[in-house]
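On clarity, I found the account of how folds are encoded harder to follow than it need be. What matters is that the chain and its backbone geometry are given together, residue for residue. The format is easy to grasp once an entry is in front of the reader. For illustration, here is how one protein appears when written out as sequence plus structure tokens.
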Amino acid sequence: MIPPSKAPITMQMLQELFTNHELLRRERSRPQAAPSGGVTRVGILGGGTAGWFTALALRAQLPFLEVTVIETPSVPIIGVGEASVPSLVAFLHHYLKLDVLEFTREVQPTWKQGIRFEWGQPGDYAFQAPFDWEVNGVGMLGSMGETGNINSFTLQAALMERDTTPILKHGGQLQSFLPLLAFAYHLDNQRLVSYLSRTAIARGVSHRDVKIVDAELEPEGPPGEPRIRRLLCDSGESLEFDLYIDCSGFRSFLLGDKLAEPFQSYGSSLFTDSAVAFNAPHNGKIKPYTTARTMDHGWCWNIPMFENDHLGYVYSSAYCSQDQALEEARKQWPALTNERLVRFRSGRRQRAWVGNVYAIGNAYAFVEPLESTGLLMITRAISSLVRAFPLGPDESAMKHFINQSAARDWDRLRWFLSAHYKFNQRLETKFWQDVRETTDISGLETALTLFRQYGPLSLLSRAMRTQLNETTGVFFYGLHGLDTILLGQKVPHAQLDREPKIVWQARRQMAVDFARRGLSQADAHKALKEHPEWLKQLIEHPSSWVSKMATYV
């Protein structure tokens, strides 16, 4: 029996006493070798962001694997800007172990503090969807009551309103608050993929520049679980692996074409199927956010990079031709250049992991980038696969769990995006009239009923929030994100009592004073050249939001 101690009991002692060390050891460790008959050779079909992210993750987290990326030389990279969410910063610099200074120098990302929606109401109305809705709240009820919109409900929203960043000038001195305010990256796809591929090859990933013309199936296998035996190249060579990662994009060569996994459309909720991407000058004004602007037959993204803005008009070909879309875009951006067309369909395959094929990115599922979720969903698929290792001869239980989780995440994302369409009253074109009339939002009915009767969902009791998140919540965005979209579009809801006006105004004034001192994005990045330690602090300090977020990646 342990004798009683006269020393005071601390929280650290209690945590140490009641921690399940066996569970922690299993969670924190990575397998160092494959079990007998398990997966050791992984072939990734397709490069791009999905393919090279996967290769780097496997090398960083499971170094015993032999990883090969197979690319077709004639398939070009669609050079568009990509927006992300803050968890990508943790994924890149903690999970993939990419040096932040090298990454910043080579890829030249800009910072994103949220999304500005020119959406919801007629005229020049817009609302902010910042990333700090949970941690830096000025007050959404106060903002709605005092200003008529939600644009003053967080500290980061104040920065977005003034086009400033968390690097402040005070008394002639500069101070970085980057570790305190979560932001995301805007990325040029071509620079990103070029950097990822060079880094992966330098870290030992094999790279094959060959054209795959066919895939041979195993002659026998369990019902409903066809398996790939080998890939056939146009040169006559064949390539064999234990596990095949399908990163072939919309073609879905392995999962869709060869294994014939059924496709489930989201077309009743998301009507668009095309995008015209282009660039336009910004004259040095680099906005610290992504913009989503309502257009006659869809919407347009604006992703600011250092050289210019990367834009894309997402539209429905049932209402608008490519030429009509470009004509409409030119009215707003007369100097647009580098137009290119992208065709897509929204939906997912029934399963992401079938036999020995695991699909990541567009090869499994796609929704338009209205909430910058493309890279987010790629990283979630990758981390799910890594956690499944070590993979032995029978991985059926893990496969079933991951397939269920992936389908649930994508379906919830579908319903989240459907709310953006159903309640957008900005324009009265045929497209928007039909969208408001017919968009399927059935997956949100419970949440919407509660919102209308009880007000913002994030203000419900903890028990109700927990239960609602299990059926409705979208990873990362959660109920706060859904509230922002509903309140921003002024969806009617029950009125709630709020704090005294003077209390909210005091917090609001502090946020305004903070934002007024912030540097523009262009000036902030110039300051970083003199203070590279700010980026190191952002990634390495244990109290930084990046370090905290890394535990969830």
Notes: Residues 1-7 have pLDDT under 50 and may be disordered. The chain has two domains: 41-78+89-98+189-265+349-394, 104-186+269-346+415-550.
